[in-house]
Amino acid sequence: MEITTKNGTVEITGFGEINLALTLDCGQCFRWKCDGDGIWRSVAFGRAIGVKDIPGGLTLFDTTEEEVREIWLDYFDLGRTYDKYLKEIQKDPFVRDAVKKYGTIRILHQEPWETMCSFIISACNNIPRIKKIIERFCLIFGKPLPNGEYAFPTPELVSQLEPEDLSYIGAGFRAPYLVEAAKRVCADPDIFERLAAEGAAGAKHELMKFRGIGKKVAECIMLFSLGYDTSFPTDTHILAAMRDIYPNGLPECFSSFPGLAQQYVFQAQRELSAPKKIKHETEKQS
DNA sequence: TGCCAGGATGATG
DNA sequence: CATCATCATGGC
């Protein structure tokens, strides 16, 4: 891997492949937006940044080599190659097609607190609305950054709120869960370090003690922010589809990197379910 | 109006 | 332990 500075931007090459459009809009994160120049912009770890994928690498704006090494290499999961994972899960024919299209998605390493809030909000919700709720959450309660973006609201601030204070962001019945989670995190500042170290089973069990965090949300937090590659986000629709495809249980290859395999299958499933509406409309017209 | 969204929860067998 | 009814909000 090489990190160089050109014209005030930082370029990273030699880490393999990443497709930002797929990676940043696949439902694992909710705050990235693409501008007219193909630059994806967001805030993570309190730093605003722009990123663009170029052939063989990434160009990062508004950052430094030091910050790249400190934050963004790990955030974008560039420190390892996915080759062996992809090779393994492609032993299954159903996954092979999904990997062909979505194999350039990387699993981000996001901030645990932000990920926890995001997936509490995601419960029984849809991605466009999840994004809007989080955007308003940051706009109202996040610290403004120099470039007009907003940091994610801190647990310290959120813990001081009443659920009604969150009414504007439109989180609905999930609002009290956010405040409760903030209070717990403030009372136990090392919780995420402990969760990341204590093993998957224990971490999942402890996460599920939070109101608003069940099996699915716990697994998402673990996969997308705590470094548990072995977790397997359980989505009701995916599960139903998987049960049809694999009535006798999941194939062996899923155990090697289930989070990644599931992420690709989820994308393939989204693509499959999208044309239904168009089909329905054409049927209506004819 | 009715149905859905990458669920959670508590009560049952 | 698996399944099930209930909950709850905004968008389409």
Write structural notes for this entry.
With about 290 residues, the chain is an alpha+beta fold. Helix content is about 50%, strand content about 10%. It is built from 14 helices and 6 strands. It has helices at about 20-25, 65-75, 85-90, 95-100, 110-120, 125-140, 155-160, 175-185, 190-195, 200-205, 215-225, 235-245, 260-275, 275-285, and strands spanning about 1-5, 10-15, 35, 40-45, 45-55, 55-60. Strands 1-2-6-5-4-3 form a 6-stranded antiparallel beta sheet. The longest helix has 16 residues, at about 260-275. The structure holds a DNA duplex (13 and 12 nucleotides).
Residue fraction in strands: 5-15%
Radius of gyration, taken over Cα atoms and rounded to an integer in Å: 19 Å
Distance between the termini: 55 Å
Main beta-sheet strand count, sense and barrel state: 6 strands, antiparallel
